[in-house]
Amino acid sequence: GNTSLQELNLYKDNIGAEGARFLSEALRGNTSLKWLNLEGNAIGDEGVRFLSKNLRGNTTLQRLDLSFNNIGAEGARALSEGLRGNTSLQGLNLALNNIGAEGVCFLSENLRGNTSLQELSLYNNNIGVEGARALSEGLRGNTSLQRLNLQYSNL
After folding, report:
1. CA-based nearest residue to 27, from 66, 55, 64
2. What pTM, to 2 d.p., does this model score?
3. Average per-residue pLDDT in the chain?
4. No. of H helices and E strands in the chain?
5. Torsion angle of the four alpha carbons 30, 123, 110, 62, in this order, in degrees rounded to the nearest 10
6. Are 117 and 147 in contact (CB under 8 A)?
């Protein structure tokens, strides 16, 4: 596989879930990618599931932008599982999706012990009070998060 690619910007390329599957396969075993921008690609929950399979063992990805991708609670669950134990991701952008309170509950489970994530954007995800409560619980033991965007989250 490729060992020199550090940034991949697929902003609004409309790759969809199938494109996410191919991308995931292409990035399997990659040890150099630090930034992946998939904003506005309509990958949905299915696409996140494909990507998450290869995130689990990744030790180099630092920034992941999955904003505006029609990701719901099931996608958030898959992402949460893929990031379990991850120690390299510093920035995660999930803005303009629809993960809701249920999705935030899944993500919050992994925030507690996370030591690398510094920025998290949940802008415009309709997480509501229940999601904010779950997020608060998840952040209780977190010492790395520095920026949290909850604008337009129906709090």
Report:
1. 55
2. 0.95
3. 93
4. 5, 6
5. 30
6. no
